[in-house]
Design goal:
The protein has 83 residues and is mainly alpha-helical. Helices cover 58% and strands 0% of the residues. It has one domain. The two termini are 18 Å apart.
């Protein structure tokens, strides 16, 4: 499972952040740092970058949570469409 998948599951509250850290094989503080990077910079925040080289375009965390919620709602109502 990719780190992004683990973080998305934690954001969607399917797993706890402690479980996400365990799955990713990192400490809880390291996972919290990855979470903050993802919340602030989106997908590119998961990668180590040089200071000052951040991508300025990102989606607000509230939008990510809303999209995940809508996706899960659609997936529950039409599971065969996503297999």
């Amino acid at each position: 499972m990719k780190l992004q998948d683990v973080i998305l599951k934690a954001i969607a509250r399917k797993i706890t952040w402690l479980q996400a850290a365990d799955i990713a094989g990192v400490s809880l503080p390291a996972m919290e740092q990855k979470r903050r990077g993802y919340q602030r910079f989106g997908y590119t925040g998961l990668f180590d970058q040089l200071p000052g080289k951040r991508v300025i375009y990102s989606v607000p965390m509230s939008t990510v949570e809303k999209v995940l919620e809508l996706y899960q709602t659609i997936l529950r109502s039409h599971p065969a469409s996503f297999s």
